[in-house]
Amino acid sequence: RVEHPAGGYKKLFETVEELSSPVTAHVTGWIPTWLRGSLLRCGPGLFEVGAEPFYHLFDGQALLHKFDFKEGHVTYHRRFIRTDAYVRAMTEKRIVITEFGTYAYPDPCKNIFSRFFSYFKGVEVTDNALVNIYPIGEDYYACTETNFITKINPDTLETIKQVDLCKYVSVNGATAHPHIENDGTVYNIGNCFGKNFALAYNIIRIPPLQADKEDPMNKSEVVVQFPCSDRFKPSYVHSFGLTSNYIVFVETPVKINLLKFLSSWSLWGANYMDCFESNETMGVWLHVAEKKKGRLLNIKYRTSAFNLFHHINTYEDNGFLIVDLCTWKGFEFVYNYLYLANLRANWDEVKQQAEKAPQPEARRYVLPLNIDKADMGKNLVTLPYTTATATLRSDETIWLEPEVIFSGPRHAFEFPQINYKKYGGKPYTYAYGLGLNHFVPDRLCKLNVKTKETWVWQEPDAYPSEPIFVSHPDALEEDDGVVLSIVISPGTGPKPAYLLILNAKDMSEVARAEVEVNIPVTFHGLFKRA
Question: What residues bind Fe cation, as annotated (predicted)?
């Protein structure tokens, strides 16, 4: 196990300046000539406004990064996204919009009457688009998990406009992990108010760009509604599973207390984090719907408690759904451990904190789709290649036990990526992940989900980001291609950061492109082919 006593990871959470124009990166190794396009990634880049700090990993103001690849040359560019949260903070030189874990105090210049009236406007929801970026039609949007997404120009990184999803479709927010089909159809999930005021979850579908060139957002629709285990407390949802015929929604015990959320925050200085609580008894409920008919399957899948942020992949096989997940065991919310004070602590304290946190494990669950009442008490999983089980119980629920596909003490396989274009929603073999060592990202990992074989890239005092797989244009095999990751190496030499290119077959280094500036943490992104 690798240790980090020098604390170089703290540089991941340091404010940086944007660039006025792209800078040339210094390449060592050889960039494949077929690799043409841009790696676009999002993350926080401003961790305080004047003397006011942001407190949580998901609070810093959104910075959009781009590495451009052209004829073996690489440039790097970055710009802050001009969200309302950012523009108003810059204008007023204070935190104006409450973020995930940071409360924005009311305007000190306002008198008591205008403050009193602003309570009735309710909460101003943040549009800080620091989590991911994805295409809708021909447009690109940066997003967080609220109802606001931000249209950006992927070439210049300029901010185009804020879009409110509520104006198009009935959701209170949407995840930063939509599924994008090869024809451009976008699926996402969000909390909503269902029938007679009960809470529910809507799956929304945004069609691909049509010949009329009309904005596909105008044609978005709800395709199916999943019920909520508690009519007043929706679960936190970060991603979901999709195959050609099914939608899989995993409802975890991390709950949003809506009464707290809707009561005037400004009266008691609350933020989003204050509205989460855990249901200690429900475990995890899994729901399945038929994608094309928008019909809920009346099967109640149950298993023991975990947190879930990222689905690895989902596929169908002979009347079963295989659902591969990056889980964190238990019902305590993992985000409780992602305050910046925790993440910037010295290595011994970082380790101590992570010992108390839920433990990570990559798991495969197998959901039977055809249930015969005669099989009461039996394991319904008949697939030869998995040890996962599904047992029909007398209350007609189906109890699931997983097959563990990756596990190491305080070592997570997280931020999973696959050869999504060809293998998303289909049987697959390989996943690429960011290895978290007590929450510190210190390695890149390739996992064979069938044999559990792993390949690792790791260097001392090097802190990579989510690996993005880019397929070779003439690929014959699933792992023909490269893996891209932004790495910071604060301790070693004059170059604080680089773009790393690995051979996806064996995770060996192909090239790196070094830059003269630090690059703070990024969460998610995509490769846009030229």
Answer: 177, 238, 310, 524
